[in-house]
Amino acid sequence: MPMNRTDELLEALHAIVLKDERALALAVRKNLAFIRVKGVGLEETPGVISRITDALNSAKINIYGIFTITSSVELFVDLKDKEWAIQLIRKALKGDGQKDRSEIG
Q1: What does the alpha-carbon distance between residue 53 and residue 30 come to, in Å, rounded to a whole number?
Q2: Which of 44, 55, 57, 85 has minimal CB crowding within 10 Å?
Q3: 84-89 long-range CB contacts below 8 Å, 24 or more apart?
Q4: CATH superfamily of the domain spanning 31-104
Q5: Is 16 or 42 the better-scoring residue by pLDDT?
Q6: Are 96 and 63 in contact (CB under 8 A)?
Q7: What is the dihedral of CA 58, 61, 65, 69, to 10 degrees?
Q8: Confidence (pTM)
């Protein structure tokens, strides 16, 4: 069975990590979903990240990574939880006027 492109890329990255003494490790988690929440004024709305993380925590959905960049919050969840997480995030942000201005997906 031939390797897929992801496996080839991971092997190449692993080889770099082994050769470069500045690199400590390479961790890989498969089957993650990327969710981006963005909207005008999102970065100026206090508590947005808390509302997102609280909603996912209440549903026992783990966040494997989270980034904030100007008007967006980007996070990684298990692929099987993606659609449920999107619904929870939409519901959590509904009350702050973000509903009509935000994109989630």
Answers
A1: 21
A2: 44
A3: 84/59, 85/33, 85/35, 85/56, 85/59, 85/61, 86/35, 88/55, 88/56, 88/58, 88/59, 88/61, 89/35, 89/37, 89/52, 89/55, 89/56
A4: VC0802-like (3.30.2130.10)
A5: 16
A6: no
A7: -50
A8: 0.75
What digits encode the pLDDT tens for the residues 14-36?
999 999 989 888 888 889 999 99
Look at 18-32, 57-71, 76-90 and tell me which has the smallest mean pLDDT.
Answer: 18-32
* Whole-number pLDDT of residue 105: 64
DSSP one-letter code for 3: P
Q: How far apart are CA 11 and CA 87, in angstroms?
A: 36
Structure tokens belonging to residue 3 = 């390797």
The predicted pLDDT at position 3 comes to 57
Residue type, 65: G
Q: Per this entry, what is the length of the chain?
A: 105
Q: What residue segments make up the domains of the chain, in order of their start?
A: 1-30, 31-104
Closest CA to 28 of 7, 2, 54: 7
